[in-house]
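Input record, target 12 of the design panel.
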């Protein structure tokens, strides 16, 4: 499983995912860095079969209307410290991975992992 972490989320999240064995990029790793457009992120996600991790409502809208990017993990925790977000991911990661075996759109809040059909 491969991930692409969007600009609104900390680069440290990508490092956490890499540290537990997942091929993960952050937009800061891309040539345009955090200026990478949503369209370019989608093209990379399609080409590399990556799940986009974002807080961006535009990505949700694009997924709902066009199924682009093909797999989307939306973070709906509101304001959360980086350490708390990282801890939430570590605890929830097995469920996230399992959710993507049958779903293309998953939402992570502070208290739940929600799958969308």
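The sequence produced for target 12 reads:
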């Amino acid at each position: 499983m491969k991930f692409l972490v969007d600009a609104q989320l900390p680069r440290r999240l990508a490092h956490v995912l890499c540290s537990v064995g997942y091929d993960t990029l952050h937009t800061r790793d891309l040539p345009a860095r955090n200026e990478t457009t949503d369209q370019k992120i989608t093209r990379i996600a399609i080409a590399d079969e990556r799940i986009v991790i974002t807080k961006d409502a535009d990505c949700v809208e694009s997924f709902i209307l066009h199924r682009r990017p093909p797999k989307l993990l939306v973070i709906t925790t509101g304001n959360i410290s980086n350490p708390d977000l990282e801890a939430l991911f570590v605890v929830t990661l097995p469920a996230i991975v399992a959710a993507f075996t049958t779903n293309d759109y998953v939402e992570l809040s502070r208290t739940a992992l929600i799958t969308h059909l």
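DSSP finds four helices and six strands in the chain.
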